[in-house]
Amino acid sequence: HEFRSRHYEENSTIHVGNLPNGTLSLKINKLFSGFGKIELITLKRSYKENEYALVKFAEVKSALAAVKYYKTRNLMIKGSYLRVTMSNQLRKVPYSMKKCTEDFLC
């Protein structure tokens, strides 16, 4: 799987970049709730750059579907094209939880 790492498990969080200043979490929820249950939306504000959001879905497949959908479409809010990618905030998997598979060599 393209987002899987040998030492990290997949997460269900996407990064929504290039948000115009003042974007509300309600707007983010409206854009992404159709892909699955959203557990958390975290807006990060910056005075020097555009804002971004981290959207945590209940399931990985929802996050992947959202990224795939918006990768092929130009999503614009208030004149800013949003960038939707998988978040790089991967959670390290303790060695004891790893399975002996192709992805995790034991």
Task: Describe this structure in a few short sentences.
With about 110 residues, the protein is an alpha+beta fold. It has two helices and eight strands; from the N terminus they run ββαββαββββ. A four-stranded antiparallel beta sheet has the order 3-4-2-7, with helices on one face. Strands 1-8 form a two-stranded antiparallel sheet. A two-stranded antiparallel sheet has the order 5-6.
Please outline the major beta sheet: 4 strands, antiparallel
The N- and C-terminal alpha carbons lie at a distance of 19 Å
Count of discrete alpha- or pi-helical segments spanning 4 or more residues: 2
Biggest sheet: strand arrangement? 3-4-2-7
What is the chain-wise order of helices and strands?
EEHEEHEEEE
Number of strands: 8
Beta percentage is 25-35%
Percent in helix: 10-25%
The best one-word shape is globular
Radius of gyration (CA) equals 15 Å
* Model regions low in confidence, pLDDT < 50 over at least 5 residues: 1-8, 90-106
Q: Quickly give the structural class.
A: alpha+beta
Q: If you had to describe this structure to a student in words, what would you say it looks like?
A:
- This protein is of the alpha+beta class.
- Helix content is 19%, strand content 31%.
- The chain has two helices and eight strands, in the order E-E-H-E-E-H-E-E-E-E.
- Strands 3-4-2-7 form a four-stranded antiparallel β-sheet, with helices on one face.
- A hairpin with a 6-residue loop joins strand 3 and strand 4.
- The chain starts with 7 loop residues before the first strand and ends in a 14-residue tail after the last strand.
